[in-house]
Design goal:
Length: 199
């Protein structure tokens, strides 16, 4: 149902499955032993992995969710010509709520890949999949209150895709310490079609 590979101008998104990803490579970047992991996960809903087995279990669960049409998680790698081409840069994905005809996007990047505009580039590609391939009506993205880096990136690409900021949802999400307030943004298929008609 979900594409196994998505290419953008600068990125390759590959399905997060055991066939495409080495669990130990992922563990290297998501483990408690990584010195950057606390900053990377500061505003995310997951906590650093304690063991390689935890990473492997996560990889297998995401592959199963893909097969069942519940989640589409991708590894992000820069294309040839980009700095650190081919390296594991982070992960992204979409969670479809089929009854509500909505896909919620998520993403995290390793620190060396911050500030390159990759967030907006992969969001545009996922929006196209959500609207044209999956026939959904709305895409949504949230960020935790206080996460200014994500706010700036999301506001920029949501505006480019024709969407808007819906507001602050109190206790709208969780992190490793409990409930957190989140800002929510949405783009409808009609807004996206209008905003991208000349591209």
């Amino acid at each position: 149902m979900f594409p196994d590979r998505i290419e953008t101008e600068r990125l390759v998104l590959e399905a997060f499955t055991p066939e495409n990803v080495d669990a130990l490579e992922v563990y290297q970047h998501t483990s408690q032993r990584n010195p950057d992991v606390e900053e990377i996960t500061d505003y995310l809903s997951w906590v650093p992995h304690r063991t390689p087995k935890e990473t492997l279990d996560f990889l297998r669960s995401q592959a199963e969710a893909r097969r069942e049409g519940e989640d589409a998680t991708y590894v992000i790698r820069p294309k040839r010509g980009e700095p650190e081409a081919g390296e594991f840069a982070g992960m992204t994905g979409m969670h479809p709520d089929w009854e509500r005809r909505t896909a919620t996007f998520g993403m995290w990047l390793r620190k060396p890949f911050w500030g390159r505009g990759y967030s907006g580039e992969r969001a545009a590609a996922l929006a196209e999949v959500a609207f044209e391939r999956l026939d959904l009506e709305l895409v949504a993205v949230d960020h935790h209150a206080g996460n200014e880096k994500s706010r700036r990136a999301i506001e920029k690409y949501v505006e480019r895709l024709g969407g808007r900021h819906e507001g602050l949802l109190r206790n709208g999400g969780t992190d490793g310490d409990g409930p957190v307030d989140v800002h929510r943004y949405t783009v409808t298929r009609e807004e996206w079609t209008e905003a991208t008609k000349d591209e």
